[in-house]
Design brief:
Low-confidence stretches: 669-674, 810-833
Helix content: 40-55%
Radius of gyration: 38 Å
Strand content: 15-25%
Distance between the termini: 106 Å
Shape: elongated
Number of helices: 28
Strand order of the largest sheet: 13-23-24-25-21-26-27
Oligomer: single chain
Structural class: alpha/beta
Mean pLDDT: 87
């Protein structure tokens, strides 16, 4: 077999170390890919697949992309879940002996990119590392583009459920895990079908507790005790695996990762993955869009940093009363001073993404244009800070103190970097005149080289008295002084003879050779010197990491607070009263998203009263489409908004802290994991009952409808009894149902109240009034809703006939189960079919919606029916 070419041997040796990546191999002005990498890149990037002689009989499959446009190709590969290794030439081909040295300078993966064109500016890009042992798991989420690291330890019998919820909260772009994680069916299904991100197994032979302890302490310069993670073994392993992986792919220090947010689930409101989806916090259930979500309503931020922070506030509502109140007070001050609010919004509007710019500075990938972008942000800081000088809210005072004007950094960038520098840092043209004396001299030489030569010639003629002395140039000797033979006796001693011709002699001087080296190498030296100066400037900016990060976080915070205040003004929100009691009272509450989506009609507000005493459970009945689900979601969202620090859509609200929100809303098969609608429903119900506390808010929408009527009704009642019973759970609960028999529980279970959605019926037509009123519904109006939905009249009419037959059959009874079995003589029994009809008609009447004339007419009709019995 023929021997491989030296270049191909070099390629294969490097590829051996990066087998799970697409290796982009620098060859001149192109990045080339070979063999399977070439086939993959050709398919994904729609590149022409060619071949290259590699010393073998068959040509190696090959495709490539130009070096100046590689970023867009890398972005496409990374967005599709591929890892890309960048292999650069590490020496100058012009001076290299033999094959040019090459090495991988960086590996780009979905969870570790820092390039702005590969990131969503309003969303963190998390890498997740999981280490699981039995009933414990450590989980680390790191966003290398901003320097954020969140770490937690889960110790629980339901570790899989809690792990899934944590992953669902952060929704990482890349997950790395130890082998035990993937053996858990629930976690594996969730990662595969819900998160849809790149997932790889950690090399467990490489990772040990001692190894992780060492790399963590070396990186953070603190012991595990100082980091407060010494007792959390799995968390240490997850964090260590994260630092190890990031170091491996970034090929440089991780200086922007300076702090760890080691949190416990008790620090934030618990919202499981199902509830996040049901409440549509950041994406809609149907199309996974931003429009139509709570984030869409609340996000009026002007900076990328503010967008990410506000999103994290929505995803992680607080349960600390002091912190919530601080946010509310800050929003209130901005809300009450519209001039201050508008000025701050205007000031923030043009600010660039300082956090991600700083990350690129730290990882030495920022160019001169990005340093100027950082300068533009710094120039806005005095205006942003100045506007807050007179504010009284403690959170705004903290922001004011945290904003560093960074004047020294701004001055450095402004004096060193040209106003409109090129994109490339390797071609010169980016350093200002006057910043570096050597650079100024070189530029002067390039621009005025001939003038320097003429000046030396004039000086030497005058000094030596040789009137015909001249300076010439050739490629052999470079610059030289030519003296005619008739003037040889005037040649100074310091002249060095280089060549004798028939009529003259040629000399060189030390000054002339120095000028020659400057003139001939000036342009090349300018490019190198500019890059050296730029790297020094960038390094000095990186040294101020802490100050810039702290300022960026402060700007993000005021941006998010301004967004809350702006939305509150635009939508007529009110500041909720927060307490540490169990009271939940909302006056004229509105659904924040639905009211924004409605254009042709006003949203009908509703009141809510819940607590853990007389109003633990609200049973809500009424027809489909009447607004039960909207009302219950509205209550949940108002509570969540309040604990995020936002004002709420209501005329007033008193909200006792809620430790978690659980929802069981809607119906959908989980085809990916082979679960039916009913199985999904029961799994979610089980999770709620196993994880809720008396301080939780529970939303149940039509439990039990995925099975037979009696089974469904039994399950619904059992769930309701368990939720309402203070000895078992006793949580605040909104329970919507079509099982009207459950309304009898108001008389049987303390703390249970009936509510219904008011409906007005005229003949066969119904009107939804959208009002929540006390009492059970007088009917389901299923046939009327079918008519509204456009079901053909023949079907609707036939449905009425069948309903009449069913209702008139002997033996149809109302199932009424009580807490303790009642004597038979207490059971309600109806006589004839005619009396049943009268009772049914009475039940269907809504006396609140009848006019006096309509009431008299109905009474007359009922009297005629009664006379017939």
């Amino acid at each position: 077999m023929a021997e491989l070419t030296p270049m191909m041997r070099q390629y294969l040796e490097i590829k051996k170390e990066y087998q799970d990546t697409i290796l982009m191999f620098r060859l001149g002005d192109f990045y080339e890919m070979f063999f399977e990498d070439a086939k993959t890149a050709s398919r994904e990037l729609e590149l022409v697949l060619t071949g290259k002689d590699c010393g073998q009989e068959e040509r190696a499959p090959m495709c490539g992309v130009p070096f100046h446009s590689v970023d867009s190709y890398i972005a496409r590969l990374v967005s599709r879940g591929y890892k890309v290794a960048i292999c650069e030439q590490t020496e100058d081909p012009a001076t290299a002996k033999g094959i040019v040295k090459r090495e991988v300078i960086r590996v780009l993966t979905p969870g570790t990119v820092i390039e702005s064109n590969m990131l969503d500016e309003g969303k963190n890009n998390f890498l997740c590392s999981i280490w699981m042992n039995d009933l414990s798991a450590g989980v680390c989420f790191a966003d290398v583009s901003t320097g954020e690291v969140s770490l937690t330890q889960i110790d629980s019998k339901s570790v899989a459920n809690k792990l899934v919820n944590e992953i669902g909260k952060f929704m990482p772009s890349e997950i790395r895990y130890n082998s035990e994680v993937i053996t858990n069916d629930k976690i594996r299904e969730f990662i595969t079908h819900r998160v849809e991100c790149t997932a790889d197994e950690i090399d467990e032979d490489r990772i040990s507790f001692d190894y992780c302890r060492d790399i963590i302490t070396n990186h953070f310069k603190k012991s595990l005790t100082e980091l407060q993670i010494e007792e959390s073994k799995e968390a240490v392993l997850a964090l260590g695996a994260t630092i190890d992986y990031l170091t491996e792919v970034q090929k440089s220090g991780l200086d922007n990762i300076r702090e760890i947010d080691f949190y416990s689930e008790s620090q934030f409101m618990k919202i499981d993955f199902s509830s996040r989806r049901n409440l549509e916090l950041t994406e809609t259930m149907r199309n996974r869009e931003r429009r139509g979500t709570l984030l869409w309503v609340l996000d009026k931020t002007k900076s990328a940093m503010g967008k990410r922070l506000l999103r994290s506030w929505i995803e992680k509502p607080l349960i600390n009363l002091t912190k919530i109140t601080k946010r509310h007070n800050a929003v209130a001050e901005l809300y009450s001073d519209t001039m201050l609010l508008e000025n701050e919004i205007d000031s923030i509007s043009d600010i660039t993404d300082m956090e991600r710019l700083l990350a690129r500075v730290i990882y030495e990938t920022a160019n001169a244009k990005e340093l100027r972008s950082l300068l533009n942000a710094i120039r806005l800081l005095p205006q942003i800070k100045g506007g807050l000088a007179e504010c009284k809210a403690s959170l705004i005072r903290d922001i004011y103190n945290d904003i560093d004007l960074l004047e020294d950094i701004g001055t450095l960038i402004d004096t060193s970097i040209k106003e409109d520098p090129p994109f490339s840092v390797r071609e010169g043209g980016m350093i200002n005149d006057g910043f570096n004396a050597e650079l100024d001299e070189l530029r002067d030489i390039v621009q005025n080289g001939k003038g320097y030569i003429a000046a030396i010639q004039e000086k030497e003629m005058e000094r030596t008295g040789i009137k015909k002395l001249k300076i010439g140039y050739n490629r052999v000797f470079g610059y030289f002084i030519e003296v005619p033979n008739s003037f040889k006796e005037l040649v100074p001693e310091e002249y060095i003879r280089k060549q004798t011709l028939a009529n003259c002699e040629r000399y060189i001087t030390q000054e002339l050779k120095e000028l020659e080296s400057k003139v001939l190498g000036a342009q090349e030296r300018i490019v190198k010197l500019e890059y050296e100066i730029f790297v020094q400037v960038r390094s000095k900016v990186a040294d101020e990491l802490y100050r810039i990060q702290k300022t960026a976080q402060a700007v993000a915070t005021i941006d998010a607070l301004c967004s809350f205040a702006k939305v509150a003004l635009q939508n007529n929100y009110t500041c909720p009263t927060m307490t540490d009691t169990d009271e939940l009272t909302i006056k004229d509450g509105r659904h924040p998203v639905v009211e924004k989506m409605m254009k042709d009609s006003p949203f009908v507000p509703n009141d809510t009263t819940l607590d853990c005493r007389d109003n633990r459970c609200a049973i809500i009945t009424g027809p489909n489409m009447a607004g039960k689900s909207t009302y219950m979601r509205q209550v949940a969202l108002i509570v969540l908004m309040a604990q995020c620090g936002s004002f709420v859509p209501a005329s007033s609200a008193t909200i006792g802290l809620v430790d978690s929100i659980f929802t069981r809303v809607g119906a959908s098969d989980d085809l990916a994991s082979g679960q039916s609608t009913f199985m999904v429903e029961m799994s979610e119900v089980a999770s709620i009952l196993n994880n809720a506390t008396k301080n939780s808010l529970l939303i149940f929408d039509e439990i039990g409808r995925g099975t037979s009527t009696f089974d469904g009704m039994s399950i619904a009642r059992a769930v309701l009894e368990y939720s309402a019973n203070p000895k078992k759970l006793g949580a605040k609960t909104l329970f919507a149902t079509h099982y009207h028999e459950l309304t009898e529980l108001e008389e049987l279970i303390d703390g249970t109240k009936n509510y219904n959605i008011a409906v007005k019926k005229r003949g066969d037509d119904i009107t939804f009034l959208r009002r929540i009123v006390r009492g059970g519904a007088d009917g389901s109006y299923g046939i009327e809703v079918a008519k509204l939905a456009g079901v053909p009249n023949t079907v609707v009419n036939r449905a009425k006939e069948i309903l009449t037959e069913l209702e008139s059959q002997d033996g149809v009874t109302v199932i009424r189960k009580v807490v303790e079995k009642e004597p038979e003589d207490m059971q309600m029994s109806f006589g004839s079919a005619q009396s049943n009809e009268i009772v049914d008609k009475l039940k269907m009447l809504d006396v609140n919606t009848l006019t006096p004339i309509e009431a008299l007419q109905k009474l007359y009709e009922l009297k005629l029916d009664a006379d017939k019995i």
